[in-house]
Write a structure and sequence with these properties.
The complex is a heterodimer of chains A (107) and B (118).
Chain A lengths: L8 E4 L5 E6 L9 E5 L6 E4 L13 E6 L2 E6 L8 E9 L3 E4 L3 E5 L1
Parallel strand pairs in A: 1-9
Antiparallel strand pairs in A: 2-6, 3-4, 3-7, 5-6, 7-8, 7-9
Chain B lengths: L2 E5 L2 E4 L4 E8 L8 E6 L5 E7 L7 E2 L7 E6 L4 E6 L8 E8 L5 E4 L3 E6 L1
Parallel strand pairs in B: 2-11
Antiparallel strand pairs in B: 1-3, 3-8, 4-5, 4-9, 5-6, 7-8, 9-10, 9-11
The chains are: A mainly beta (107), B mainly beta (118).
Amino acid sequence: SYELTQPPSLSVSPGQTATITCSGDRLGSHYVSWYQQRPGQSPRLLIYQDSKRPSGIPVRFSASNSGNTATLTINGAQTTDEADYYCHLWHSSTAYVFGSGTKVTVL
Amino acid sequence: QVQLVESGGGVVQSGTSLRLSCTASGPNFKSYGMHWVRQAPGKGLEWVGFIGYDGSGENLGDSVKGRFSISRDNSKNTLNLQMKTLRPEDTAVYYCAKWGGNDGVDIWGQGTMVTVSS
Protein backbone atom coordinates (compact mmCIF):
# COMPACT_ATOMS: atom_id res chain seq x y z
CA SER A 1 0.00 0.00 0.00
CA TYR A 2 1.06 3.56 -0.58
CA GLU A 3 2.29 5.59 2.38
CA LEU A 4 2.85 9.28 2.96
CA THR A 5 5.41 10.21 5.60
CA GLN A 6 5.47 13.50 7.50
CA PRO A 7 7.60 14.65 10.42
CA PRO A 8 5.57 14.23 13.64
CA SER A 9 6.15 17.77 14.85
CA LEU A 10 7.96 21.00 14.36
CA SER A 11 8.27 24.25 16.22
CA VAL A 12 8.53 27.74 14.77
CA SER A 13 8.81 31.22 16.24
CA PRO A 14 6.15 33.79 15.38
CA GLY A 15 7.00 35.55 12.14
CA GLN A 16 9.41 32.86 11.02
CA THR A 17 9.00 30.28 8.26
CA ALA A 18 7.79 26.74 8.83
CA THR A 19 8.36 24.03 6.24
CA ILE A 20 6.42 20.78 6.40
CA THR A 21 7.39 17.88 4.19
CA CYS A 22 5.36 14.95 2.89
CA SER A 23 7.28 12.07 1.33
CA GLY A 24 6.10 9.25 -0.89
CA ASP A 25 7.28 7.23 -3.85
CA ARG A 26 7.09 9.35 -7.01
CA LEU A 27 4.84 11.77 -5.17
CA GLY A 28 5.44 14.43 -7.80
CA SER A 29 3.41 12.46 -10.33
CA HIS A 30 0.24 12.87 -8.24
CA TYR A 31 -1.83 15.84 -7.16
CA VAL A 32 -1.31 16.54 -3.46
CA SER A 33 -3.64 18.49 -1.22
CA TRP A 34 -2.99 19.79 2.28
CA TYR A 35 -5.32 20.16 5.25
CA GLN A 36 -5.12 22.14 8.47
CA GLN A 37 -6.80 20.92 11.62
CA ARG A 38 -6.82 23.27 14.57
CA PRO A 39 -7.44 21.78 18.03
CA GLY A 40 -11.04 20.73 18.46
CA GLN A 41 -11.99 21.59 14.89
CA SER A 42 -12.69 19.73 11.67
CA PRO A 43 -9.98 19.69 9.02
CA ARG A 44 -10.10 22.36 6.35
CA LEU A 45 -8.63 22.43 2.87
CA LEU A 46 -5.50 24.53 2.68
CA ILE A 47 -3.94 23.63 -0.66
CA TYR A 48 -5.16 21.62 -3.66
CA GLN A 49 -3.53 20.54 -6.92
CA ASP A 50 -0.10 20.76 -5.30
CA SER A 51 0.01 24.53 -4.92
CA LYS A 52 -3.38 26.22 -5.31
CA ARG A 53 -5.07 28.02 -2.42
CA PRO A 54 -8.87 28.02 -2.02
CA SER A 55 -10.44 31.41 -1.51
CA GLY A 56 -9.98 32.62 2.04
CA ILE A 57 -6.67 30.87 2.66
CA PRO A 58 -3.96 33.42 3.53
CA VAL A 59 -1.15 33.95 1.05
CA ARG A 60 1.43 33.02 3.69
CA PHE A 61 0.54 29.40 2.93
CA SER A 62 2.27 28.03 -0.15
CA ALA A 63 3.17 24.57 -1.40
CA SER A 64 5.03 22.63 -4.04
CA ASN A 65 5.42 19.03 -5.15
CA SER A 66 8.30 17.43 -7.02
CA GLY A 67 10.11 14.12 -7.08
CA ASN A 68 9.33 12.20 -3.90
CA THR A 69 8.49 15.18 -1.70
CA ALA A 70 5.68 17.67 -1.36
CA THR A 71 6.28 20.73 0.78
CA LEU A 72 3.95 23.09 2.63
CA THR A 73 5.46 26.41 3.68
CA ILE A 74 4.09 28.89 6.16
CA ASN A 75 5.75 32.27 5.67
CA GLY A 76 5.52 34.50 8.72
CA ALA A 77 3.88 31.97 11.02
CA GLN A 78 1.20 33.26 13.37
CA THR A 79 -0.07 31.79 16.61
CA THR A 80 -3.32 30.96 14.81
CA ASP A 81 -1.32 28.58 12.61
CA GLU A 82 -0.80 26.20 15.52
CA ALA A 83 -2.47 23.07 14.21
CA ASP A 84 -1.99 19.64 12.74
CA TYR A 85 -1.26 19.53 9.03
CA TYR A 86 -1.94 16.58 6.74
CA CYS A 87 -1.02 15.87 3.14
CA HIS A 88 -3.38 13.78 1.02
CA LEU A 89 -3.63 12.20 -2.40
CA TRP A 90 -5.37 9.61 -4.51
CA HIS A 91 -3.22 6.65 -5.51
CA SER A 92 -4.19 3.69 -7.67
CA SER A 93 -2.87 1.14 -5.15
CA THR A 94 -4.37 2.62 -2.02
CA ALA A 95 -7.18 4.84 -3.25
CA TYR A 96 -7.16 7.87 -0.98
CA VAL A 97 -4.45 8.22 1.64
CA PHE A 98 -3.56 10.80 4.26
CA GLY A 99 -0.11 11.53 5.54
CA SER A 100 0.75 10.78 9.14
CA GLY A 101 0.31 14.40 10.14
CA THR A 102 2.61 17.13 11.48
CA LYS A 103 1.89 19.07 14.64
CA VAL A 104 3.06 22.67 14.28
CA THR A 105 3.75 24.68 17.42
CA VAL A 106 4.23 28.45 17.17
CA LEU A 107 6.13 29.88 20.16
CA GLN B 1 -22.27 27.07 0.04
CA VAL B 2 -22.47 23.37 0.93
CA GLN B 3 -22.75 22.43 4.59
CA LEU B 4 -22.48 18.89 5.93
CA VAL B 5 -23.94 17.59 9.19
CA GLU B 6 -23.22 14.10 10.50
CA SER B 7 -25.46 12.20 12.87
CA GLY B 8 -25.90 8.74 14.35
CA GLY B 9 -22.81 8.45 16.52
CA GLY B 10 -22.88 6.98 20.01
CA VAL B 11 -21.60 4.26 22.31
CA VAL B 12 -22.05 0.68 21.14
CA GLN B 13 -20.80 -2.76 22.11
CA SER B 14 -18.13 -4.56 20.16
CA GLY B 15 -19.61 -6.79 17.45
CA THR B 16 -22.70 -4.70 16.91
CA SER B 17 -23.75 -2.41 14.07
CA LEU B 18 -24.29 1.30 13.68
CA ARG B 19 -25.36 3.55 10.85
CA LEU B 20 -24.08 7.08 10.43
CA SER B 21 -25.73 9.68 8.25
CA CYS B 22 -24.57 12.89 6.70
CA THR B 23 -27.02 15.48 5.46
CA ALA B 24 -25.91 18.06 2.94
CA SER B 25 -27.44 21.48 2.55
CA GLY B 26 -26.76 23.57 -0.49
CA PRO B 27 -26.90 22.88 -4.17
CA ASN B 28 -25.96 19.97 -6.34
CA PHE B 29 -25.42 17.15 -3.82
CA LYS B 30 -26.04 14.69 -6.67
CA SER B 31 -23.12 16.10 -8.64
CA TYR B 32 -20.17 15.32 -6.35
CA GLY B 33 -18.54 12.33 -4.70
CA MET B 34 -18.35 11.98 -0.94
CA HIS B 35 -15.84 10.62 1.54
CA TRP B 36 -15.92 9.28 5.05
CA VAL B 37 -12.79 10.01 7.09
CA ARG B 38 -12.22 9.07 10.70
CA GLN B 39 -9.91 10.14 13.49
CA ALA B 40 -9.24 7.99 16.53
CA PRO B 41 -8.66 9.89 19.78
CA GLY B 42 -5.29 11.61 19.65
CA LYS B 43 -4.48 10.12 16.25
CA GLY B 44 -4.29 11.30 12.65
CA LEU B 45 -6.82 11.25 9.87
CA GLU B 46 -7.69 7.91 8.32
CA TRP B 47 -9.58 7.63 5.06
CA VAL B 48 -12.55 5.25 5.45
CA GLY B 49 -14.24 5.23 2.09
CA PHE B 50 -15.64 7.02 -0.94
CA ILE B 51 -18.76 6.92 -3.06
CA GLY B 52 -19.27 8.48 -6.45
CA TYR B 53 -21.81 11.20 -7.20
CA ASP B 54 -24.34 8.68 -8.50
CA GLY B 55 -23.76 5.98 -5.90
CA SER B 56 -21.33 4.02 -8.00
CA GLY B 57 -17.62 3.58 -7.44
CA GLU B 58 -17.78 2.65 -3.76
CA ASN B 59 -14.27 2.24 -2.46
CA LEU B 60 -13.35 1.31 1.11
CA GLY B 61 -10.15 1.32 3.07
CA ASP B 62 -8.54 -2.00 3.95
CA SER B 63 -9.29 -1.67 7.67
CA VAL B 64 -13.06 -1.53 7.10
CA LYS B 65 -13.50 -3.51 3.89
CA GLY B 66 -16.10 -6.25 4.31
CA ARG B 67 -17.57 -4.62 7.45
CA PHE B 68 -18.55 -1.11 6.33
CA SER B 69 -20.55 0.04 3.34
CA ILE B 70 -21.42 3.46 1.95
CA SER B 71 -24.64 4.50 0.27
CA ARG B 72 -26.35 7.73 -0.65
CA ASP B 73 -29.83 9.00 -1.39
CA ASN B 74 -29.57 11.96 -3.72
CA SER B 75 -33.29 12.67 -3.43
CA LYS B 76 -32.74 13.36 0.28
CA ASN B 77 -29.23 14.86 0.09
CA THR B 78 -28.08 12.12 2.43
CA LEU B 79 -24.94 10.02 2.70
CA ASN B 80 -24.79 6.91 4.88
CA LEU B 81 -22.10 4.77 6.45
CA GLN B 82 -23.29 1.35 7.55
CA MET B 83 -20.87 -0.15 10.05
CA LYS B 84 -21.08 -3.81 11.06
CA THR B 85 -19.08 -6.04 13.38
CA LEU B 86 -17.68 -2.99 15.12
CA ARG B 87 -14.40 -3.29 16.99
CA PRO B 88 -12.87 -1.12 19.73
CA GLU B 89 -10.33 0.14 17.16
CA ASP B 90 -13.22 1.67 15.18
CA THR B 91 -13.63 4.19 18.00
CA ALA B 92 -13.18 7.58 16.35
CA VAL B 93 -14.75 10.80 15.22
CA TYR B 94 -16.26 10.16 11.81
CA TYR B 95 -16.33 12.99 9.28
CA CYS B 96 -18.19 13.13 6.02
CA ALA B 97 -16.54 15.30 3.42
CA LYS B 98 -17.20 16.51 -0.09
CA TRP B 99 -14.83 15.47 -2.85
CA GLY B 100 -13.93 18.29 -5.18
CA GLY B 101 -12.00 16.02 -7.52
CA ASN B 102 -8.63 17.51 -8.31
CA ASP B 103 -9.67 20.37 -6.03
CA GLY B 104 -9.33 18.14 -3.01
CA VAL B 105 -11.68 17.39 -0.12
CA ASP B 106 -13.11 20.87 0.02
CA ILE B 107 -15.95 20.71 2.55
CA TRP B 108 -15.97 18.83 5.88
CA GLY B 109 -18.68 18.17 8.40
CA GLN B 110 -18.23 18.72 12.12
CA GLY B 111 -17.91 15.00 12.83
CA THR B 112 -19.79 12.48 14.95
CA MET B 113 -18.19 10.39 17.67
CA VAL B 114 -18.43 6.62 17.68
CA THR B 115 -17.25 4.71 20.73
CA VAL B 116 -17.04 0.93 20.60
CA SER B 117 -16.73 -0.68 24.00
CA SER B 118 -15.34 -4.14 24.57
